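If you are new to this repository, start here. Below is one unmodified record pulled from the training split, so you can see the exact layout before writing a loader.
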Amino acid sequence: MKYRAEIDGLRAFAVIPVILFHAGFESFSGGFIGVDIFFVISGYLITTILINDLEDKKFSFFNFYSRRARRILPALFFVMIVCIPLAWFWMLPGQMKDFSQSLFAVSLFISNLLFSIESGYFDLISEEKPLLHTWSLAIEEQYYLIFPIYLFLFWKFGKNKIFWTIVIITTISFLFCEIVNQNKISMNFFLTPSRVWEILAGSIVAFMIKKNGIKKNNFLSISGLTAIFFSIFFFNRSTPFPSAYTLIPVIGTVFIILYTSNNSLVGKILNNKFLVSLGLISYSAYLWHQPIFAFTRIRLTDELSSFLMTLLVIISLLLSYITWRWIEKPFRKNKKLYGSNYFIIGIITFFIIFVSFGYLGHKSNGFDHRLAAKHLPMDFYKSLSYDAINTLCIDKSEPCNLYTNIDNSKKVLLVGDSHSVNFHYQFIDDSINRNITSYQFSTTGCGFFLTSSSKCKSKIKKLKEIVKKTKFNEIIFVNNLYSHAAKRSKNDWNYYESLMNILAKNTEKLYVFLPRHSIQSSSPVKNIIHKNEALNGIKLHGKEQLVDNFYKILNKKYQNFFIFNQSQILLNLGGGLNSYTALTNDGYPIYTDTNHITMYAADYVYKNFIEFRLSTNFLK
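And here is the target side for that same chain:
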């Protein structure tokens, strides 16, 4: 295959916007489209190689896959190895568990499937996932696995029929992504069926160039480059993606590959030595930038400045050159390295290491037995451990049945917003110990007011139906009312009170947890680890007294309405209102963010609640 320097120049226009987007530079708000450029380039190059080999009757599955392995795995495995010790020393158990799962998934070329069921690509939490960017590699690797087999099997039918078959598959994939984008935005972003049309667009280009050659057209190649620049600077996180919008950078890339020659205007721009050099190291640059950004965000407590992010971009490029020069290039060019059994043994060894580490990290809840720093308790990480199951009973259309005792007709319901989820495990254990059937109905961000979101109001309607129908013996209500109470009208409070009335009238005992206070820091655990406890003081919303008085009125109104003061228990646990550290006297963290608590704190609060519940047998 004849080398086209402009393709490497185009790679530079793909990787630099991606890096600057992940670095947080707002001007490059659509920089994520660099991945789409890569997809089209990959489809074009791989299909061209396959067509040439099949035409020359020298195609070999072994040679093709070994070339792909030499191109992708050495640099990827090196970056993954570097990530492991950084994750071990800097990540909290939940982060470490996620990282371990991604390590496992990357090794099996399915990280896009893993990330499709986790948080969205544009969510803030994703910024601290070192291997998030490997989703695109997984899609390309899946394409590499399937497309050569398809081309080999159907080659006998002729290139024309294969071409139109690819056009049809491309169209189906595009329509699929448009349909899925209506409801499953995160899944749509990561799934291969929603993305493969972009790679196949490159495959179509390969067939067209094979038949007609490169047709110089300055207008179309300039239009293609303009489309890419438009996407980089005018798209943003709210742009539906992938969708019809994705056609703009994809068609732009197609035009550049189809209509750019060495002596065309765009060709002269892309053949610039600096851009070509960046293109040569683009794969390593793509591999390095996300782990560097993610681990810096994990390690530092302050917001990262533009100067620091610029420095990290430069470090990423320097590491990229080193990786390209001493890892990528040797494994691709030096037959002594890739042609020996040592290469295969090495790949298998690293594969086993990554899969094993990933599995163990998952099973151990992020290696929560790790020893913490000297100023922290030995089992510090253990106190933070939460399994992902606590998200399985949240935002469901029906209550989750957590435990059932067919011999006991009594039933208890845990309901509220994400604060109720903090007591998921304790509630299950309590239900088992009491041998009582239990349900959980939790909705994130739900204030239970008239002006709450449509999602919240639909759950309120369902809750009213459920309690009237089921007649729970106990209802435990936990939500972040101190925060939700801001800017609420009289109608809102009347609506909230009517809900409390319905709950109280349809249960023997209604236990309402007085809301917990929020703290100043969104990263309290990180502050504790790095001895910045002073940053974790209490943040008052100004509605605390209003909420407390509101619940006191209901407490007097209903004999079965009980207020459990978790707020005071957490204040006492962390040093009091005026000197709060979000840290217990024993050195254990209380909060995981501004308002959610750790497993240690949840255990402590719920034990106090059990004592409180027992005392209510003698009250009123």
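Two things worth knowing about this chain: The chain is about 60% helix and 5% strand. The CA atoms of residues 44 and 206 lie 5 Å apart.
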